[in-house]
Design brief:
By secondary structure, the protein is an alpha+beta fold. The protein has a domain at 14-57. Helices cover 16% and strands 11% of the residues. The chain is built from 1 helix and 3 strands; from the N terminus they run βββα. The chain has one helix at residues 52-61; strands at residues 28-29, 41-43, 49-50. It has a 3-stranded antiparallel sheet. A hairpin with a 5-residue loop joins strand 2 (41-43) and strand 3 (49-50). The longest helix is centred in the C-terminal third of the chain and has 10 residues, at 52-61. It is globular. It starts with 27 loop residues before the first strand and ends with a helix.
């Protein structure tokens, strides 16, 4: 039996963007203490605010 710590998290459980979707800057922050799929992120370069989970849902529905 595996311990819970040895099981990798599901991709939907751990959503940490690497770059800003608007300007591709790596200077991004969140106010969430433990970032998850519902966390909002802000780019400190351009000011864009986004939620990765909502962006994926909108892409599946055909929104830009």
């Amino acid at each position: 039996m595996k311990h819970a710590a040895s099981i990798p998290p599901k991709s939907s459980d751990h959503v940490t963007p690497v770059t800003c979707p608007a300007c591709r800057s790596t200077s991004i922050v969140t106010t969430a203490k433990i970032p998850d799929a519902d966390s909002y992120w802000r780019c400190t370069s351009c000011g864009e605010v986004w939620n990765a989970a909502r962006a994926q849902t909108n892409r599946r529905r055909g929104y830009p």
